[in-house]
Amino acid sequence: MTLGADVVIDRSIADWPKEVMKMTQKRGVDVVVDNVGRATLSDSMKVAARGGRIVIIGNTSGPITELDIRYIFASRSASSAAPWGPTETSARSRRSSGPAGSVR
User: Fold this and answer.
1) Three-state secondary structure call for residue 104
2) Is 3.40.50.10490 the CATH number for 16-97?
3) Tens digits of per-residue pLDDT, 57-91?
4) Which of 50, 11, 6 minimizes the C-alpha distance to 27?
5) Which residue from 83, 22, 21 is spatially nearest to 52, judged by alpha carbons?
């Protein structure tokens, strides 16, 4: 909460997408920070508000996922990825994935 979040939801004890939509009166949130990856990214896309941002900072549940891109179109959200981990791993990731801040 010290990072500026108004509310924090523990996904292990709640249906977090449902709680987010309930708390925001179905509007969604301005920023989603997803550090899990495959297990949560689809739900992260669903709860982003129109014009919201999804920041991907990890893939602890796996790097490969399937997304329904209709949620990106519908919300007009922007996605970005931030390298995480040792410097050499981050540099190698940036070289293989394109320009900084892009998601391919």
Assistant:
1) coil
2) no
3) 888 898 888 888 887 777 776 677 776 666 555 45
4) 50
5) 21
